[in-house]
Amino acid sequence: MLDVENIISNHIGVKQSLKRRGVDLDVELIQSLNQSRKDLITKSDALKSKRNNVSRVIGNEKRQPTKIEIEEMRSTGDEIKSLGNALGKVKTTLTDLLLPLPNIPSDDVPDGLEESKNIEIKRWGQLSKVHGEAHWDIGLKLGILDMESGASISGSRFYVLKGRGAKLQRALSAWMLDVHTNKNGYIEIDPPYLVKHDTMVGSGNLPKFKDNLYHDDETDLWLIPTAEVVLNGLHQGQIIDPSILPLKYVARTASFRKEHAAAGRDVRGIKRVHQFEKVEMFRFVEPEEGNEALEQMLDEASELCEKLELSYRVVELCAGELGFQSAKTYDIEVWAPGSGEWLEVSSISNCKDFQTRRNNTRYRPKVGSSTRFPHTLNGSGLALPRIWIAILENGLKPDGSVTIPEVLHDYTDWKQLDPILN
RNA sequence: GGAGGGGUGGCAGAGCGGUUUAAUGCACUGGUCUUGAAAACCAGAGUCUCCGCAAGGUGACCGCAGGUUCGAAUCCUGUCCCCUCCGCCA
C-alpha cells in the first residue's frame, strides 16, 4: 500500500510515477478524505477527553452522578458514537481507494507500457538451432508426462508426471533448495498452502486479483498462487528484531492459479497450468540494502540456470509491465527449442515497503528509535514445470533419449531419460 | 464434533464497574557509586493516532468485533486463537 502522507506531500511525483504504469491517481479525492478523517478524529478525541474527565471526577469523589451530568454525558456519548461511525466510513472509503493502487516504479525502471518496451540486459549460452520436439511429445513418448490423466482427473490445464518425470521434478526441487540453504544462506520454510484473506491482502493479491485465486467459501481460505504470499506473511503485525535482518527465506510449494486471463493461450503442454511447483526466494531487508539484494537474487537464480546448462536471457521490465506489488523486476527466461520460445522461469522483484505497509511488518533499527518498514524482495528460484520443459527440449538427443544436467545426477541416480526404461 | 479451562505490556503475573494514569517481579535503557565491572540505589521505558515549528499535549490499544453504562481490562453477546480430556482420523 502506498503511504498517504507521501501521496499528499509528494503528489506531483507520485502521480507522474503511477502514470508511467498507466494508472491515473485522484490525489484530490485522497487528500480530502484524509482531511475529513483527521477532522473527525480531532473532534471525537476532544469529546472523549471531556467524558474521561467527568468520569474521573465522579470516581474520585465516590458519589453518584447528578441527573444533569448523566443527561449531558449521554448526549456526549451519542455524539462520539456518530462521529465514530462517520470516521469508520471515511476510513473504509480511503483504504478501498488505496489498496488497489499498485506500487510506484523505481526511477531507474525503463518507460513503456507494453512487452516490447522491456529491455534485454543479458544473454547466456548458445541457442539450440535445431527445432526439436516440444515437451508434450517428448514427455508422452518417454511415458513421463500424462496429459490425458490430468485432464480426466481434474480437467484442462492439469497434468500428471510419472516415473522418471516425477523424480526429475523432485530432484530439481531438492537440488534448488539445497543450493539456497547450503550456499546462499536461506532459511527453508515449508508453509501452509491455504491462507486467510488478510494474508492475501498483505502480499497484494487481494483485493484486486481475486479472479485468479482459488477460494474455499466454507472456511474463507485462499489457495496460494505463489509461496511469496506466505513468506511475506510470516511477520505480519510484528516488529522484527533488527539483528536478524536481512531475513532470507526459501520455500518449495505448489502454486495455484485460475489463469482466466490467459484463457485460450498456451493450452498445449504444461507451460501454463492451474497447479505447479515452484521454489521461491524471499527477503526482508533494510531499505538501503534493497538494490544490492535484488542483484544478488538475480545472480542466484541465473546461476541455477547456468548449472542446469540452460540458455537464458534476463529482461528488465518496463514500468507498465511490472507486477502490481513490484517497484522493479527482472525476468529470467530460458530458451525452449522445441516450443520455440522463451519461457519465463523466474521473476525477481523489489517490492520495497509496499507489502510491509500492508502487513504492518516493521523493525526498529536501534533501541529507542522509531520503527521503519523493511523492504521485501521475492524471486523464483526457479519455477519447475518450465525448467522441466527446458531440460527435456534442450536435452533431447536424436535417439529420443534426454540428457539430464550433471548437477542433478546425485538426486536422480540416473543420467538420462530413456524411452525403454520409463 | 463434544466437555472444560484460558488469552493482560519483551516475558512472567495481579486486577474482575469509578483512587488503574494497568500493581509487582524479571529482562531492558540512562544515571549515581566504582580504577573497571558486579551489586545496590535513582530514574526511564510499549504501539498507534490526532493537535503542535517545537516543547508538549489529546485519544485509542488488556486476542478481535459489537453491546450495556454517566463511566468497562472488569458485565453481556458474537468471533478467533491456545491448552486439557473424550470421539473421529492421515
What does this structure look like?
With 422 residues, the chain is of the alpha+beta class. The chain has 2 domains: 73 residues; 303 residues, Bira Bifunctional Protein, Domain 2 (BirA Bifunctional Protein, domain 2), CATH 3.30.930.10. Helices cover 41% and strands 20% of the residues. The protein has 13 helices and 17 strands. Strand 6 and strand 7 form a beta hairpin. It binds one RNA strand of 90 nucleotides through helix 3 and helix 4.
Strand and helix order: HHHHEHEHEHEEHEEHEEEHEEEHEEHEHE
Multimeric state of these chains?
A: single chain
CATH homologous superfamily label of the largest domain: Bira Bifunctional Protein, Domain 2
Please state the average pLDDT score: 93
Strand order of the largest sheet: 1-11-12-13-15-10-9-4
Examine the coordinates and then state which fold CATH places here, giving the name of the CATH topology of the largest domain.
BirA Bifunctional Protein, domain 2
In total, how many domains does the architecture comprise?
2
First-last Cα distance: 50 Å
Number of strands: 17
